[in-house]
Amino acid sequence: PPAPPNDLCMNATPIACGQTITAQTTVNATRTGAPADICNGFLNNSSLGVWYSATGLCGSVTASLCTTLPSWNSKLAVYSGSCGAGLVCVTTNDQFCGDLSQVTWPAVANETYYLYVLGAAMANTGTFDLSLACVNSPVDATSNVINDLFAGPYDVEVVIANTGGSPATIN
């Protein structure tokens, strides 16, 4: 049987704040490209796993497998950086909610995060639902020069949106 389409980091499935991706699986996944370094005390290349990517985050972010039924012994790791040797450990969890995993981390704007779902051991594979919950995320900011007459200082207007409330304009 073929591996899942997001078996490799470069083919990570996008996930957004407030989204739950259902009926996912690590069955038939491989360890190809799995991170080799210890992350938050866990080795994350000892089992089969699949990848997800999240962008546009800022603030507290929680990724969770806790609604998955039936339960199976999972791990959930978060990396920043870029696929391959450029992955940087953010956090890993094993058994937050029974055998299932959940992680929370402070996300930094303009960073891509890679979520790696894998079994706690080589024999652990299963189907799962992955949810991503965010507080104060995402934030968009735009700016415009509104006085470009070369006659004095420039005025800059900054609009901050997607903060959970109405957009704010700063002049």
Description:
This protein is an all-beta fold. It is 0% helix and 45% strand. Strand 13 and strand 14 form a beta hairpin.
What's the layout of helices and strands?
Layout lengths: L12 E2 L5 E6 L12 E2 L2 E2 L5 E6 L4 E6 L9 E8 L5 E8 L7 E6 L5 E7 L7 E9 L4 E6 L10 E6 L6 E3 L1
Parallel strand pairs: 1-5
Antiparallel strand pairs: 2-11, 3-4, 5-10, 6-9, 6-11, 7-8, 7-10, 12-13, 13-14
Element string (H = helix, E = strand): EEEEEEEEEEEEEE
Q: Calculate Rg over CA atoms.
A: 19 Å
Distance between the termini: 58 Å
Shape: elongated
Strand composition percent: over 45%
Question: Which structural class is indicated by helix and strand composition?
Answer: mainly beta
Q: How many β-strands, per DSSP? A: 14
**How many DSSP helices?**
0
- Arrangement of strands in the largest sheet: 1-5-10-7-8
| Biggest pleated sheet | 5 strands, mixed
| Unreliable runs | none
Percent of residues in helices: under 10%
Instruction: Provide the residue-averaged pLDDT.
Output: 86
List descriptors.
171 residues; mainly beta; five-stranded mixed beta sheet; four-stranded antiparallel beta sheet; 14 strands
